[in-house]
Write a structure and sequence with these properties.
2 copies of one chain form a homodimer.
Chain A: H1 10-16, H2 30-42, H3 50-65, E1 69-82, E2 86-92, E3 96-98, E4 100-102, E5 114-121, H4 124-128, E6 139-142, H5 155-171, E7 176-180, E8 206-209, H6 211-222, E9 228-233, E10 236-250, E11 260-265, H7 275-295, E12 301-306, H8 314-322, E13 330-333, E14 341-347, H9 351-361, E15 367-368, H10 380-386, E16 389-395, H11 400-403, H12 416-433
Parallel strand pairs in A: 5-6, 6-7, 7-8, 11-12, 11-13, 13-16, 14-15
Antiparallel strand pairs in A: 1-10, 2-3, 2-9, 4-8, 5-9, 10-12, 14-16
Helix pairs in contact in A: 2-7, 7-12, 8-10, 9-12
Chain lengths: 444, 444
């Protein structure tokens, strides 16, 4: 083999020559640098972990270096989740390893694992319809048919297999549950994510297998063959783990006006490095805030890099509690990857202002949607408490659930061109609302 | 969530509703059934393993059921490889897990693992240029720039990083070597594959990390930061493991004519289920042989489902030895996935026959290449020993190295439409050469 490149170009060329990844120009901007450095220098940063603490220190240092004021960590404590070793094997009709991950808040199996016959359910509704006690001693498997779509709307109903399935299976006597990953890819990377169990229900070990593994189970079920599975999950919940938010301000020229809050979350699932979920979101809101502020804003723009979103939006709840007595003018969040913004939703009573924002975004290929903007997990609590105006910049989610909560959530999945379109769109919005002197109120 | 489908359609619908996978019609043909059933009912079948033995039993039963005669297992013994637990972590500058797999014939590390500073090499040539002894106590990392292409020609030079890199690093004193996977995807699935060490060189633990992990290492190296890695590989070679070929004949109408041999390999790497490598190949050659035979052939078509190809073509060597005294007319092999045939290469002295074959394939979108047909690993030894005529049906390899030797080599990667185009092309060729009464001799 001949070296393709030699000499002084080498170091840069190595980085640019990443297979299948879009190649960012060197020094391509604040947003790229944030997501690249966070995923490279910190990596996975699960809620409550030492790595999440390392991410907070990294984030505070970065925000200060970028010129933010009042940068601080705001600590809180959570019920966390400690990743162990998660394994599963099909034992019958043939021995085959299954690519599995424990779901968030799943209890561990005994160390030697458990075995059970598989009860196959094609849908969550089919599981719900199973008679009480019918799963005693068995491992439930729940299939589904999630498909990729632009607005990510499948994550509500199909994500319920993960959110609700474990609790339902537990109430029917299952000794464990395995679900088809809530994902739209066909790689051997399972999708983790939080689950929960209703009060009074004894939690059971709960995992997700990759789509190709779920296909194998579905084919075997369709052939009418019975299945046995061996399952060992050592991941487990843990109380009293430290977490925290990181907050910083770009102070506006008119302190009489309430600040705008723009949020993302700093924590990530541990399987990948949290590039699209949600390093990119922090990169977008921060770079856009800097851009708008540099052009001049009367209102202060506050950046919230929330902690512990993945396990239940703990950072957003903590923020709303800690800042209940401070006014906020409007809230926005970026937490849906780094692909292009295609739609804006404006929950703004001032229709002239809303129309002005929509018109300004139009040259970026962004259309206007309805007023049902909701912000997101990290600003949901403060929006609810203070009845805030909200603007959503909806991103193209077609490939988001290919990578979401998997080992594949890595930097190469971020397209720097689309990332920059996000920054530009956000900066336009922040430039307008940051200088709006009228009260910013929601519709109705 | 509402069930999308209910009632009697359910079982079939579950199978058809596989995300991102082409949906084969039920009962869509012999080829699909072979690769689907082999991957479902046997799964991973590493050279020398119990699962490879199970695959031989499965294969013999299937060939008999399909009407093959003289079906038999032909056992041999190999130096095998036992998969253990393979792990790596970047320790500095930041702790990050690395998705790694041991390379075939890598020795194990001590059970508690090893740690070392990383010596980064952008190419195999750069590793070759390292001074003797310069890697003492260090872990070599070798990067490269393999890209997808239609004819798979990158696997020669870039595959050498895997084949030769470990031996070279060992001679320079490295305690271990990690390479960027010889693959063209950007998923967190490392590509395994066989390696080797020159005589007299003490083997060192050798692994491959996924491309996103290699990107992380390359970025860190480009930033000029030193790296430490912790490596634990418990996979290891093992002598005296049982393997074998499975052979069956479709007897032609004229026993005076030497048979045609069509080959694939039955073994697979253990990370995936060997769908494209090489369940699909066995499916193609077998279904095509049956189709040509049903239409009438004077020559016998012999199917060879070779064992232990992955660790060094042991099955092909064993076949050539066992059948050295039997005449063969012509050899072909399918071992490059299941995507469409785009080119035929004919090493046939009878140019009129070669031209007739090429013309017959043209309606399937297949062009003619040169005469440098080489067959493949499983027929290489018999071709060499008997100077056989060879025909290659070259498949589109653009996405082959996205999945090759990874956990992602699963059934959903087989496109049933392209699989059937392969069968049709092979059947055309076998129909013509199976009735060619002239001697089938190679060029020159």
């Amino acid at each position: 083999m001949k070296a393709l490149i030699t000499g002084p170009m080498l170091a840069a060329a190595v980085v640019l020559a990443i297979p299948a990844a879009a190649s960012p120009p060197q020094g391509s901007g604040t947003a790229w640098d944030i997501v690249a450095d966070l995923t490279t220098e910190v990596g996975p940063r699960l809620d409550g972990s030492e790595r999440e603490a390392a991410a907070r220190a990294w984030a505070a240092a970065r925000l200060k270096a970028l010129g933010f004021q009042n940068v601080r960590e705001e600590p809180f404590t959570i019920r966390g989740f400690v990743r162990g070793e998660d394994r599963a094997r099909l034992l019958a009709p043939a021995v085959q390893p299954l690519a599995i991950t424990a779901l968030g808040y799943s209890p561990a199996t005994p160390a030697k694992g458990i075995e059970g016959e598989v009860a196959y359910f094609p849908t969550l509704d089919a599981l719900k319809a199973a008679p009480a006690g019918s799963l005693a001693g068995r491992i439930a498997f729940v299939d589904h048919a999630m498909r990729a779509n632009q607005d990510g709307s499948g994550y509500g109903p199909f994500g319920n297999v993960r959110r609700q399935g474990p609790g339902i299976a537990a109430t029917k006597g299952a000794i464990a549950i395995i679900i088809r990953s809530a994902g739209t890819d066909n790689h051997r990377n399972p999708h983790t994510g939080v689950s929960s169990f209703p009060d009074g229900v004894k939690p059971i070990p709960a995992g997700a297998v990759s789509n190709p593994d779920a296909d194998l189970i579905a084919r075997t079920a369709a052939a009418g063959r019975s299945m046995r599975v061996a399952l060992t999950l050592t991941s487990h919940p843990q109380d009293g783990m430290p977490s925290g938010n990181v907050v910083g301000d770009l102070v506006g020229s008119n302190p009489a006006l309430a600040p705008i809050i723009v949020a993302c979350h700093l924590d990530s699932w541990d399987l990948g490095t949290g590039a699209i979920d949600d390093g990119a979101g922090c990169a977008i809101v921060t770079a856009a805030a800097l851009k708008a502020h540099a052009a001049g804003t009367q209102r202060t723009i506050r950046v919230l890099w929330a902690g512990s979103e993945e396990l239940g939006g703990w950072g957003g709840i903590a923020y709303a509690k800690a800042h209940a007595n401070e006014p906020h003018a409007l809230a926005m969040e970026s937490d849906f990857g780094a692909d292009r913004v295609w739609r804006v939703k404006l929950n703004l009573a001032d229709e002239a202002l809303a129309a002005r924002i929509a018109a300004a975004l139009n040259p970026l290929g962004i259309v206007r949607g309805d007023a049902k903007a909701n912000g997101g997990e990290d600003v949901g609590a403060i929006i609810e408490a203070q009845k805030l105006a909200v603007i959503d910049l909806n991103q193209d989610g077609t490939r988001y659930f290919d990578y979401h909560h998997t080992p594949d959530d890595t930097l190469d999945k971020v397209d720097p061109v689309q990332l920059q379109q996000n920054v530009d769109a956000w900066a336009i919005v922040l430039g307008i609302v940051g200088n709006a002197e009228s009260d910013l109120k929601p519709v109705g």
